[in-house]
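Example (one chain per record):
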Amino acid sequence: LLFIFTKKNMRYLSISFLLIFIYSSCIEKKQFSKTGISQKWVDSVKASSDTFYIKPYLRNKDFISGEYYFNRKDTIVSQFMKDSAGTIRQIIIAKKNMLRLFFAEYYANGQLKTKYLLDEKGFYNGPSTFYYENGAIKATGSFVHGLYSGSWKNYNEQQILISTDEYDPNGQLISHANK
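Predicted structure:
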């Protein structure tokens, strides 16, 4: 095929390159999944509560207010800590005896920082994943009764493995290997 460079063809070619440039500059960098808070879930926690109150926190720069929801029947307290923009930054759900059932932390943009599984005493227990603010995985590993355990893998913001840490049964770091 022979392409003839006329003024009309050059104009179409220029416009095509311009549109391709504009389109490609509008495409954002790869974004990772956002494991944010489900509003439906938050609403269900609030709906199952029979009492609530809001407490302002003036000394802490990360949390400006705490919303506390009580379910007296199940003796469950749900705590939502919010920043100055009204974004939920931390959730703690506990039984009346202060046994924590659930714990999660969030960045200001709503992205999950980490969510912990808890054992019968409220200690971090089981597999856990930490995230960067862009949603990329920061670290993965496990806790056993509140202590780091076994192998933990650490990643950069492009999710490339950068190091591995090994912990003994007492939660002490025994080795660190850069990749």
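Caption: DSSP finds two helices and eleven strands in the chain.
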